[in-house]
Design goal:
By secondary structure, this protein is mainly beta. It has helices spanning 8-11, 175-181, 241-252; strands at residues 2-3, 34-35, 44-49, 52-59, 64-67, 80-84, 94-103, 117-121, 146-151, 166-173, 192-195, 212-215, 218-227, 236-240. The protein starts with a strand and ends with a helix. The model is unreliable at 4-29 (pLDDT under 50).
Length: 255
């Protein structure tokens, strides 16, 4: 079963959304990770739909946020907000109403290609402890490099959401190897990168969608899709920030 990383129960009926081929994990949380402090990952945001956590997102400037395109599907700005500066899902920090949600115009609902979106907030972020922007990478990571993923997604496929922010470190998987792993699903495109432990057991999951994958302190990937969560032979698939950066810069002015 394909994992869905947006909380489908918030945009459809609870527990009745059926995964489709090559759809992202529309629900989620970190598998095999550990509790994290927002002070160590101050760019992390909780993307809220009608006040409840739905996806992850990252701060890139005082007014701009990066997330996944599938997280903004059929979501109006008036229904979306972002909680910053809190390690705890649903409380603390500051909440910023969205004033614009802009998905990459090439985003494909069925293949999950070009899975990137930006959001503008009506009240600027106030930078300080627990609230800071993250720089965008300009280069695709190499296989074997260590990536860090954070979020409030489920700790197992179809599981419940944690209250505390979670973090997990994963090696980047060779692009060709990952594409072969997903051959039955059409492989992956140049706009995707993968990360996973060879033996499985660690991964992003449902509810982490749109959240950050970082390498050397820069935003390198955006949690996107995969088969199951932490399953051996099915790495987590992330939107490739290096190849999608031009869209982000064009819309936000952030380099």
């Amino acid at each position: 079963m394909l994992r869905f990383l947006v909380l489908a129960s918030l945009i459809a009926c609870s527990l009745c959304a059926v995964p489709r081929i090559r759809r992202p994990r529309l629900d989620g949380r970190i598998v095999g990770g550990q509790p994290a402090d927002i002070a160590d990952y101050p760019y992390q945001l909780s993307f809220q739909y009608l006040g409840s956590h739905m996806c992850g997102a990252s701060i890139i400037s005082e007014i701009w946020v990066v997330t996944a395109a599938h997280c903004v599907d059929d979501v109006s700005p008036s229904s979306a907000s972002f909680r910053a500066g809190s390690s705890i899902r649903g409380s603390g920090g500051s909440v910023h109403q969205a004033s614009a949600l802009i998905a990459n115009p090439n985003y494909d609902y069925y293949t999950i290609d070009f899975d990137v979106a930006v959001a503008k907030v009506s009240t600027p972020f106030s930078f300080g402890t627990g609230v800071q922007p993250i720089a965008l990478t300009s280069s695709e990571p190499s296989a074997g490099q260590t990536a860090v993923v954070t979020g409030w997604g489920t700790t197992s496929s179809g599981g419940s959401l944690p209250t505390q922010l979670q973090v997990v470190s994963l090696p980047i998987v060779d692009h060709g190897e990952c594409s072969q792993d997903y051959a039955d699903y059409g492989g992956i495109t140049d706009n995707m990168i993968c990360a996973a432990e060879a033996e499985g057991g660690k991964d992003s999951c449902q509810g982490d969608s749109g959240g950050p994958l970082t390498v050397n302190g820069k935003l390198t990937g955006i949690v996107s899709w995969g088969v199951g969560c932490a399953e051996k032979g099915y790495p987590g698939v992330y939107a490739n920030v290096a190849s999608l950066k031009s869209f982000i810069t064009q819309e936000t002015g952030v380099n």
